[in-house]
Design goal:
heterodimer; A: alpha+beta; 2 domains; three-stranded antiparallel beta sheet; 5 helices; 8 strands; B: mainly alpha; 10 helices; about 55% helix; about 10% strand; extended; transport (chain A); protein homodimerization activity (chain A)
Amino acid sequence: MSAAIQTEAGDTFPFPKDYSFPAFFTRQPNLQTHHAQLEKWSALVLAYAHHHRLFRFSPTHPVFHNKKLDRRFAEADVRELLEHMRKDGRAEWVGNEVFVYWRRPEDWARKLEKWVEDTAQKGHVLTLYEITEGEATLGTDFHGMDGEVLLKALNHLVKRGRAQIFGQDDSLGVKFF
Amino acid sequence: MSRKGVGIGAFDRSRLTSRQFASHGSSLRASNTEALTTQLTVFRSLLQQFAQTHAKDIRSDPAFRAQFARMCTAIGVDPLASSSSSSSSGAGGGLWAQLLGGSVNDFYFELAVRVVEVCSRTRGENGGLIGLKELTERVSQGRMEGSTEISPDDVKRAVETLKPLGGSYAVISVGHKEYVRSVPRELSNDQASVVEAAQVLGYVSVSMLRDNLGWEKARCQTVIDDLMSEGMLWVDKQTRGEWEYWSPTSMVDTEGVMEPALDGG
């Protein structure tokens, strides 16, 4: 589940100064410069996704097109960027999009663990739907989370023996230990 | 003596004064050398008293601190002279220690370490040439509230302490800006001219250089390619005309070069 794509006018994200730099949108030929460019774009994508709570990103997302500047980070270059982020553990391909991990699944797992502890939910059973949409998580970071990212996080807990997942595709449930 | 004298009368008056000084100059020097030495010693101790009285201002106001440092240097007090905090000799070396709360070495050493960190971290994007102002801002980021404000002058002095590292670190002046270079290779004259040209609009193009510096196209392209391979220029290929080559310092320098599109546009 991805949030509505924001148009640039009225975008609340505080863009960094890099975004106003025309050359930022050209794939730099110099190796070191290109690496620095990828790092800056990574940081921007992560911050943008975090700000808007986007869990998925498309290589054709409007953010790569700065209308005011009339500059566009080409799709091929965006794919290169997403590959770079994937190697960094910050992105994962899912079809023609990527999951953008402004918080890695293992970090989500730790937060979940703490929440379970704080709310005395050990031994309780919750559906994944309840976690992402239920009243119990209102006001927490988990509310509105992408279901698949939640599942990845829970799988980390399963691996450590802290949770068990059961059920069918549409109604998966989790029990915390 | 009025400085606004006009006409022959004034000319004569000033010539007369000069002659007077000239004739008395040598005798003045001879008899006053001792007096001058005494005066300097007196001045030095007055400066120390001044420093102790205004320690708070010197600690908190970078501009004031810079002025004070210049005065010290002018009269032979080395602001960077090392001092052990246990020493209470009260000599010139202990002066900065008292002012800056700890050994002067600590202050500039820590600053130098941060300078090296920032330069290493940004070398990828600027090729080892960073604006002094930008460096100062970056070095100041992430410091605790209430800690001494860092000025470009402080950063310059910190860079000076890095000289023993074999010539990699230096403060250089190009056009109307100062930069800190953190790579051994110095800019050639042509390269410096291009860096200076880029200060106006933030970027250069081959024809801009040709028109403003009178160079042949080949020379323009060569220097641009040089700076590109050094990582000191970024290329913009989406201009629909000539490619434009941007100085990375204009990525952060908002002094009338580019308006940041912070409203999300």
